[in-house]
From TrEMBL:
Protein's recorded name: AP endonuclease
Keywords (A to Z) from UniProt: Endonuclease, Hydrolase, Nuclease
A single MF term (Gene Ontology): endonuclease activity
Superkingdom of this protein's organism: Bacteria
Domain Xylose isomerase-like TIM barrel: 38-265
PANTHER family to which the protein is assigned, alphabetical: HYDROXYPYRUVATE ISOMERASE
Organism of derivation: Shouchella clausii (Alkalihalobacillus clausii)
InterPro entries named among the record's database cross-references: IolE/XylAMocC-like, Xyl_isomerase-like_sf, Xyl_isomerase-like_TIM-brl
Gene3D superfamilies associated with the record: Divalent-metal-dependent TIM barrel enzymes
């Protein structure tokens, strides 16, 4: 299993690690992140994390710390309020595609495999604000152009139902699968973000099963929340059983990609918080192993809610965290 988390989480509780007046660079954050027990990979945002240090400096620091890069995540800010791949202004749209291609090249340079695209601003807030079919086609075309330009690199689409827009253009798993199918390139997949799925009232394990069935499962962003917002709480803290079910399906479909904790520790020590997320994931994985995949499969086949409830309560005392 390979694990990473949000680099920006390590800006939190500054006083625990950094000196008071220290100006914090990307390399400083990576160094703090590397102190997390069990962490194997670093995921960087582009262009955000390449402002204080160059690609070569980051590469050297990673070598020194013996940490690998899993991939790059796009962060569109500034000129993209009206949309990224669907922006009416051709220059802005071209710039969004150009930045995405740059991110993939940086990912390649750093030895990463996957570039994750979250289109924060491609969506709408009002009726009659967007030509839906035009926007859909613009997104398909942009993703196809990007994927075809880098056939050996993974491009993963991370959907979110809303925030910051009232409606995202590609808002759920079904739409994401339709989008990926229309793009029609083998190197395009889907990143499942647990909170985003909860916000859409999707059952996370169902999304794993369908994305895996279509062979498009490319990334996990794990966290937890109370459904309405992208709360970014610790793994299993609210939806423990849905997290267990999610991990069961990840095992069933032999998911071996990155397990990235997209959490937002603010009042917690981010090192302790991430260490706990890794421990929780491993503990839940262990429960599934100890129970046995066949036994769980049998339980599912029974379709007996009372038996499921008994199973869930029976495993709680065996949790080792
Ligand atoms: Mn995410």
């Amino acid at each position: 299993m390979i694990f990473s988390t949000r680099l920006n989480s390590f800006k939190t509780k500054k006083e625990l690690y950094f000196s008071v007046d220290q100006e914090i660079t990307t390399i400083d954050l990576i160094k703090r992140m590397a102190t997390v027990e069990g962490l194997t990979h670093v995921e960087l945002n582009y262009p955000e994390h390449f402002k204080t240090n160059s690609v070569d400096e980051i590469k050297a620091a990673l070598d020194e710390l013996h940490v690998e890069v899993s991939g790059i995540a796009l962060r569109f800010s500034g000129i993209y309020d009206d949309g990224e791949f669907t922006n009416l202004n051709e220059n802005v749209r071209d710039q969004a595609i150009k930045i995405t291609k740059e991110a993939i090249e940086v990912c390649q340079d750093l030895g990463g495999t996957t570039t994750t695209i979250w289109l924060a601003n491609d969506g709408f807030d009002y009726s009659f604000q967007l030509d839906y079919e035009q926007a859909w086609i613009q997104t398909v075309d942009a993703l196809r152009d990007i994927a075809k330009s880098y056939p050996t690199m993974n491009i993963s689409f991370e959907y979110k139902p809303y925030q910051p827009r009232a409606f995202s253009l590609v808002a759920d798993l079904g739409l994401s699968l339709l989008m990926v199918e229309e793009v029609g390139q083998p190197n395009v997949g889907i990143t499942l973000d647990f909170c985003h799925m909860l916000m859409k009232k999707e059952n996370p394990a169902y999304a794993v099963a369908l994305a895996a069935r279509k062979n498009r499962l490319m990334g996990f962003h794990l966290n937890d929340g109370y459904k309405d917002n992208d709360d970014g709480l610790m793994l299993g803290s609210v939806h423990l059983m849905q997290t267990l079910e999610f991990i069961y399906y990840a095992k069933k479909y032999s998911y071996e990609g990155l397990i990235y904790f997209d959490t937002f520790p603010i009042r917690e020590d981010p090192v302790a918080e991430c260490t706990q997320n890794i421990k929780t994931y491993k503990a839940l994985d262990q429960i599934i192993m100890d129970t046995g995949m066949e036994k769980i499969e049998q339980l599912i086949k029974e379709r007996n809610a009372v038996r499921v409830q008994q199973f869930m309560l029976s495993i709680l005392p065996t949790l080792q965290v």
